[in-house]
UniProtKB/TrEMBL annotation:
PANTHER family: NICOTINAMIDE RIBOSIDE TRANSPORTER PNUC. The keyword Transmembrane helix applies. Its main location: membrane. It is found in: Cell membrane. The chain crosses the membrane at residues 12-36, 43-64, 76-94, 166-183, 189-207. Keywords: Cell membrane, Membrane, Transmembrane, Transmembrane helix, Transport. It comes from the Bacteria. Belongs to the nicotinamide ribonucleoside (NR) uptake permease (TC 4.B.1) family. Coiled coil: none annotated. This is Nicotinamide mononucleotide transporter. It comes from Kribbella orskensis. It is a multi-pass membrane protein.
Amino acid sequence: MSFFDWLLHEQVSIAGSPVLVREIVGNVFGLASALFGMRRLVAAWPVGIIGNVLLFTVFVGGVFDTPQDKDLWGQAGRQVFFVLVSLYGWYRWYQTRHAGAATGVNPRWATTRERLELVGVGVVLYAIAYPVLKSLGSWGPQWDAWILTGSILATYGMARGFVEFWLIWIAVDVVGVPLLVQAKFYPSAAMYVVYGLFCVIGFAAWWRIQNREAAAASTPEPVVVG
């Protein structure tokens, strides 16, 4: 059996239910991406894309061979969006890094206008996602729609360097864990728990970085008298 055959078809048993190895591997790449993101490394984006591609194939059992009998089209759809936004974030952080910055992004709080825009976009996205996912037969469409909407907002916020993006991820994880457990996507549910804890740490880290950089920017340089 080749590596790709193994990756696509191998299963393990968790809590008495079959689980695809590629679901586990995809989530490992997702966690690595989050770790790189907290450290503001450009590598967060390409690593995340690999995980997104693998997880897309996990959540659409009607298209790919999966042991679960439930399709989560919102989960699958957000993987597609992740890839698109990751390409944008990868480019943006790469440009920042090669402009002389030590890291790929400088964290900052979103302005009041930017927050209102995020809320407005979130309402519109949810209003579109819910009926679409329901018509596709997605399991738990009201919750799946929020996970898709929140994931889009959080990924965009990460690309822009908004400190608040961590809080959006936490709100996604709170909904995602029970949904994925009930649908028997156990590795993804477990990773959502890990992501939630990690997001608390990431939020605190970016908050400290933002405060430190803001303080440094507001400190006047000493005047040298010749």
